[in-house]
Specification:
Keywords: Membrane, Transmembrane, Transmembrane helix. With about 100 residues, the chain is mostly helical. The protein is about 65% helix and about 0% strand. Among the domains are: about 30 residues; about 30 residues. The chain contains two helices and no strands. Helix 1 runs antiparallel to helix 2.
């Protein structure tokens, strides 16, 4: 610190434009409908993840060789990233 005097602030500073400003009552979105749509989309993503978790060991049992394990482990990581990006995009799109 510079060693100057402290200044007492007696009221809150004004909020910045665009941050925390409430929308007019007539323009508020139907929150339960949005949450329901996002929940359904998330359940689809969870089903895809469950299918991947069950399907990869089944596929690995049918395919011989240790190189298949390495290839599948890389492929699974790519699918995780893809599913997470799609889920984020779908959720944001539903909020608009």
């Amino acid at each position: 610190m510079t060693g100057g005097r402290r200044v007492v602030v007696s009221r809150r500073p004004a909020a910045l434009a665009g941050r925390g400003t409430p929308s007019p009552p007539g323009d508020s979105p139907d929150v339960p409908a949005i949450v329901g749509l996002q929940l359904r989309r998330a359940l689809r993503t969870v089903a895809a993840v469950a299918g991947l978790l069950v399907g990869m060991p089944v596929l690995a049992a049918w395919l011989p060789g240790p190189w298949m394990w390495a290839a599948m482990s890389v492929a699974v990581q790519c699918v995780w990233v893809g599913l997470s990006l799609l889920q984020l995009r779908w959720a944001e799109r539903l909020e608009r």
